[in-house]
Amino acid sequence: MTLRTIRSSGALLLGVAMALSAVAQNAPPAGGPPPGGPGGGPMGPMPSPAERAIEYRQALYTLVGGNFGPIGGILQGRAEYNAAEVAKRTARVAFLATMAGDAFPEISKDGKTKAKPEIWSDKDGFAKALKAFEDSSANLAALVEKDHTNSAAFKAAAGKVGEACKGCHDNYRAK
Amino acid sequence: MNSLLPTPLAERRVWDLPVRIFHWALVLAVLGAWVTHQLGVNYFVYHVWCGYAVLVLVSFRLVWGVVGTRHARFGNFVHRPVATVRYGLDLLRGRAGHSVGHNPLGAWMVIALLPALLAQSALGLFGNDEIFNLGPLNGYVSNARGIELTSVHRRLFYWILAAIALHVAAVAYHRLVRAEPLVRAMFTGRKPALAVPEGEAIHSSRIALALVIVAALVSLLTWVVRHAPVPQTFDSFN
Predict the structure, then answer these.
(1) How far is B56 from chain A (nearest CA, A)?
(2) Secondary structure class of B1 (helix, strand, coil)
(3) pLDDT tens digits along B81-121
(4) How many structural domains are present in chain B?
(5) ipTM of the complex model
(6) Which of the residues B37, B41, B238 would you substitute to probe the A interface, choosing the one with the greatest number of A C-beta atoms within 10 Å?
(7) A57: domain range?
(8) Considering the domain boundaries, does residue A93 fall inside one?
């Protein structure tokens, strides 16, 4: 290595160090209150347990919708069948379905939610509706593992999941 | 049949063929839309087809209300509110005369139902069932707006159902109490000559004009649907 390259790499290192210290100076001081902490911050007041439960549930169903929507696109002819995407999304929906049962704690009954009180007053009916979602989505994911085509069996199995969604929406979700 | 020959029951033609086909096709399309909705999320494609049919039929009827035959024209059957109320009162007293085309109350049902069905079918185009079905024009609106419009679509149905119930009840009243064969007239196009002065009868259905209008409306709808943007979902294949 020549003297010249040692000098230039030294200058480079110095430059990197200066840049890093500049970034560090702009960072918030360590140990300060987290945003949105008690008493309110830039994010507003701390959400209540009910609000957090509702937010959790809605996040879960946002993911269900985001992953199941494209399957509907295939059934409707809006999107091309893509085996890798279908496998990925049906597996995700089946997994998310196993989480749905835990997303309806009684504290999340009141608040900014479309969840109807019947979810908690008709526990057996609701459990059955959730089980239909879990079973149909598991069945779809299992089928897609073996059948990588846009077959009648795939369409029927995906349709069953859609029916399970509707069964629950019709009875346990405000319109 | 040669329409110049007197018919055995002395009837005169009032409703042109396009009006009659429109009426019964609309009944089938609305019924089909309801049935395919009841059947569930997997029949959505057929629900959309029924909606297209309603949209084209109602749009056609609105145009036909301007360029159609005598009794199909709005200008010839829509009476002012005062005259309509007077007719309603006469009807209750059993003194109302027989109308050649739509009676004044029936006319207002037409004026209520056509825009309601037009709005209903247009709203459906932007729909989102929040499961996996999207209306063909959903790509024009945000996700939240699509859900709002679907909510209106859902609620408007009940108003339309009420209007249809009232319409059917009124027709039944005219048949049973006043012995006016309105349903038969909507099939045959003919009413008893007693209720139709000779100069009021129609002699042509203007079928060629009707076909041109329907073809134009179908082309327009096809063009609009084909050019709609693909809905931008949060996480899609695109």
Answers:
(1) 22
(2) coil
(3) 898 999 999 988 888 888 888 988 989 999 999 999 999 99
(4) 1
(5) 0.74
(6) B41
(7) 49-172
(8) yes
